[in-house]
Amino acid sequence: MIREYYLSLIRGERKDPLIWALKKVLGLLGMIYGGMVQCHGALYNGGILRRQKLPVPVISVGNITWGGTGKTPLVIELAGMIQRLGKKPAVLTRGYGSDEWKEITANLPGVPVGVGRNRIQSGLEILSKERVDVMLCDDAFQHRPLERDWDIVTINAASPFGNGCLIPAGELRELPAALARAQTIVLTHVDRVSASQLAGLKEKLLHEAPQAEWVEAVHEPVHFYEAASGEIKAMESFRGKRAAAFSAVGAPRLFIETLERLEIQIVKAFEFQDHHPFTAQDITGIRDFMKQTGIETVITTEKDLFRAPELLKKSLHPWILKVRMKIVSGEEKMTARFSELLQGPVAREKVYA
């Protein structure tokens, strides 16, 4: 309840008598947070705090808002691109919660994954055990201690900046001006906005990051699979059926819209806070609703499955919507940068410049 109230507050959906005072308090906290972020960055930009470099190229994939931009699916897609170039990637992730690194590991068999807040230590541990050609850092745009050769920032085209305010008054981790540090901007969910909306967003981003290359991507549904058995069903399998859905992701509405586009009748969508650790009580609530309404099908995301796999498999038997990040424009730019980056020190200097 507190989370729902808070989100409705920062999204301008509340009309409570105390709304003005609450917004003022959150705005003040946002200013303090923003000042701390700027000071932190200035310490690195001024050389007061040193950035450390790993002995292999490092690619950061991050964002400037809360979740829902598609960082982790993009990391998985980029790792596949690296492998197709005949090189071996590794992935470094902070491991917030337990879902992201499990999702990465499950989708990238044989790819080393380092989990921990200290990305430098995680990277060195991997390199001490095996040969790796490049490190992919998941959610590392704000992780300044690690020097990187290529900064990629993902932006959800359907909700690029939230209400335009910094945490906790809004969903921004940094102001859009921070995009000046990025070499590549990947606009995700471009199929969820009109051509004019996309053009307007690009105009705004061009002002903030004129140096950046543009890439456009969508979350492409692949198939459904049953969590416990692994049985796979085609995308058309649930067309016209009534179902419940649940998720604890950064952009739950986009997940539901995807199911509705597949012509599934979502009777109820259970939405939890991003990275929410599912409990037996949560599952009981969903099961009770399904029993009361006679609904036999419940669908969730792959990210949510990896958060509590045993509990979900035993108690709920959900179907998982498998999706992939599909680059629809600019893939040749990504491939060219990979080729340069993986050729050696001279090429890496070109990419970092």
Short structural summary:
The chain is built from twelve helices and twelve strands. By secondary structure, it is an alpha/beta fold.
Structure explained in plain terms:
With 353 residues, the chain is of the alpha/beta class. The chain folds into three domains: 2-45, no CATH class; 58-219 and 326-352, P-loop containing nucleotide triphosphate hydrolases (Rossmann fold, 3-Layer(aba) Sandwich); 220-324, Rossmann fold. The protein is 39% helix and 21% strand. It contains twelve helices and twelve strands. Strands 1, 2, 3, 4, 5, 6, 7, 8, 9, 10, 11 and 12 form a twelve-stranded mixed sheet that branches. The longest helix has 27 residues, at 19-45. The radius of gyration is 21 Å and the shape is globular. The N and C termini lie far apart (47 Å). The relative contact order is 0.14.
The helix count comes to 12
CATH fold naming of the largest domain? Rossmann fold
What's the overall geometry? globular
CATH domain class of the largest domain: Alpha Beta
Domain count: the total is 3
Supply the CATH superfamily name of the largest domain.
Answer: P-loop containing nucleotide triphosphate hydrolases
Q: Total strand count, please?
A: 12
First-to-last CA distance: 47 Å
Radius of gyration: 21 Å
Helix content: 25-40%
Query: Residue ranges: pLDDT <50 for 5 or more in a row?
Result: 345-353
CATH architecture of the largest domain: 3-Layer(aba) Sandwich
- What is the average of the pLDDT values? 91
Provide the structure class: alpha/beta
Helices and strands, in order, run as HHEHEHEHEEEHEEEHEHEHHEHH
Please give the largest β-sheet.
12 strands, mixed
